[in-house]
Structures are given as C-alpha cells and as structure tokens.
Write a structure and sequence with these properties.
Among the domains are: 34 residues, no CATH class; 168 residues, Jelly Rolls (Sandwich), CATH 2.60.120. With 340 residues, it is mostly beta strands. β10 and β11 form a beta hairpin. The chain is built from no helices and 17 strands.
Length: 340
C-alpha cells in the first residue's frame, strides 16, 4: 500500500472537483482528524450530495430537515402531550376515544336524520306533537274532550267522539263515614242534578229506642220548620203483619218507627233513597232494612217510605240522625243523577 503525503492537493479538472477513489471496490480512507474546509472528519464521511448509510451519524438535529417526510416508524407509539391549537384540517372521523365537550357543539344542531338512533326515551320530548302513527292503534285519532258529563263513543273499533251518554250518568257527590257524632251531614248537592241517590250503609246507634230521621238545609242552617215535612211508612218485621205509619214536623222519619221496633244499641240499618225536586216540593222515597232491633221485640224489620218537604228552598246538604244518642259507625254516600 502506498502513502501520499502533501500539504495541499489541488484539483486539475476544469470543474474544480477533487476525486479520490480507491482501487476497484476499495475505499478511500482519510485519517480521523483530517479536515476538509475546516471540518474535522470522523471515521465515516459522506460528501455533500453523496449517498450511503448514515447509521453512524450522531448528534443529528431535526431542525435541519428541509424536505422529505419522517416515516411513522420514527415516531414513538405514544406521542408526547402537546397543544394542538395550531393544527388545521382536523377530521372528526379519526376520533377513536374520549368525549366531545358540549362547548364544541353549535347552539342549534344541524338538521340530520335520526333513523339510526336507538334507546330513545319519550320522557325527553320537550316540544312538538307525537304523530298518530307512533301511538297504539286504540289511541290514534282520539277525539277532543266534550262537555261535563259527556262520554266517549266508538265505532268500528276506534274512538269517534265525546257526547252525552244515553240513560244519564251518576256522579259521586260525597261519602261520609260516621265519627261518633249525633249526626251525619253530606254536603255538595246542587241544582245541576235531576235526582239524588242516597245510600245508607250499616248505621249503628249508641243507645236503644231510636228512630232514624233526616232533613235538608244549606250552609246557613238546616230547615227545621215544624210543619215543613210530611212522610208515610209501610213496614213489616219478623213478628207482626204489615203496618203503616205517617207523620210530619221538622224532619222525615226514614226507618223503624213504631212501638218496640225502634233501633237497638248495635243494630245495623241500611237503605237506599231517592230525592228530587218535583211540582214545587222536595220529594224523597226509598226502602230500608234493620237487623238487631231492641231486645224483646222483632229481630229484624224492613219497609219503604216516601215524604215531602212542603216548603222547598235551596238546599246543598242532607242531614241524618237518630232521635237520641250518637251514630257510632256506618257510612252515607250521595250521587247526583243526570238524565242526559
């Protein structure tokens, strides 16, 4: 091997290039520390514009990259956290995890098809109307509400209208349970009903020898005129034949009335009565039955009664009571009946 020693080597070609080459496939070796243009060489050197492996190069600065693309393999599996404030042309299709904050949505979302939405909850509906097709078949085209007392009618399996029902209607006015007082007063009656149905259920008296009675009035007071009421009763019991009894004064007598057939302590009295204004008078009629009468007399009794209030006035309540003592238990219920 030959060795060339020189302080200066000058190119002789016109283009000024200095070519150093080995013999055949050999290498041109420059000793470490040799300088070209004032730059010390390491053990491997690539001339500007040359090609070859750069695996031995160190202290490379990415700031000097002027072209080309850094391949994915040169990035770590997880990129370091950094601000994306200057990133542009981002595509939401590439979002793989996380949740978009509300502030990233416009105040009004754009119109879009919800055909693929699932698990929708009707509780969250805030506006609009649910179309008939979304309702069960028996609720589609439901008619508008009618007037008070109307009923719904149907045809061909569907609701058609709200109208007055044939045969009238019963409307519950009030139901009162005995509380041990001397009377039971049921309020809420008015002129809007043609007839009142009065149900007496298992009334019990606190003492023996009582007659079952009733009268009417308003919030201003009960009508207790001494000649305003008249009544007639037909009754029978387990020991006697049919009897009739009539009377009047400040109340109707509505139950056991004669001799030893009065209500006993603990006896049960039930009945059904109908009351209505008619011909300028207030008319009442009904039937009743009592079980457990006073000791030594008939054990049961039943009958019918009718009566009038001869000087009818406005009334909104019906009062029931025994001739003495309290009503210890039972219930009184009143319905108003409309003919149409």
């Amino acid at each position: 091997m030959s060795t060339l020693k020189a302080d200066t080597i000058t190119a002789t070609s016109n283009n000024g290039d200095l070519n150093l080459s080995g013999n055949g496939t050999g290498n041109v070796n420059l000793a470490t520390g040799t300088e070209l243009n004032g730059t010390a060489l390491t053990s491997t050197f690539l001339a500007p514009g040359g090609s070859g492996s750069g695996s031995g190069l160190t202290d490379l600065n990415a700031s000097n990259l002027g072209s080309g693309t850094v391949p994915d393999a040169r990035f770590p599996a997880t990129l370091p956290a950094t601000s994306g404030v200057n990133l542009t042309a981002l595509n939401a299709t590439n979002l793989g995890s996380g949740t978009l904050p509300d502030a990233r949505f416009p105040a009004t979302l754009p119109a879009a098809s919800g055909v693929n939405l699932t698990a929708l909850n009707a509780t969250n509906l805030g506006t609009g109307s649910v179309p008939d097709a979304r309702l069960p078949a028996n609720l589609q085209s439901f008619p508008a509400p009618g007037s008070d007392g109307n009923v719904l009618t149907a045809a061909s399996g569907a609701w058609t209208s709200a109208a007055g029902g044939g045969g009238g209607t019963w409307e519950l006015i009030n139901s009162v349970v005995a509380d041990g007082s001397t009377t039971i007063t049921v309020t809420g009656m008015s002129a809007t009903h043609a007839v009142y149905a009065i149900s007496i259920t298992n009334l019990q008296a606190s003492s023996t020898g009582n007659l079952f009675q009733g009268n009417v009035g308003t919030a201003s007071g009960i009508d207790t005129g001494s000649t305003n009421y008249a009544y007639d009763i037909v009754y029978t019991n387990s020991a006697t034949a049919v009897h009739e009894f009539s009377g009047g004064s400040f109340r109707w007598s509505m139950g056991p009335v004669q001799g030893g057939t009065s209500i006993a302590t603990g006896a049960h009295l039930s009945g059904m009565y109908f009351m209505q204004p008619r011909g300028g008078q207030l008319v009442i009629s009904g039937t009743w039955a009592a079980v457990g009468l006073a000791s030594g007399f008939a054990n049961y009794q039943g009958g019918s009664m009718f009566g009038i209030n001869k000087v009818p006035a406005a009334f909104d309540r019906f009062r029931l009571f025994f001739s003495s003592g309290n009503i210890t238990s039972g219930r009184v219920t009143i319905w108003g009946i409309k003919h149409a």
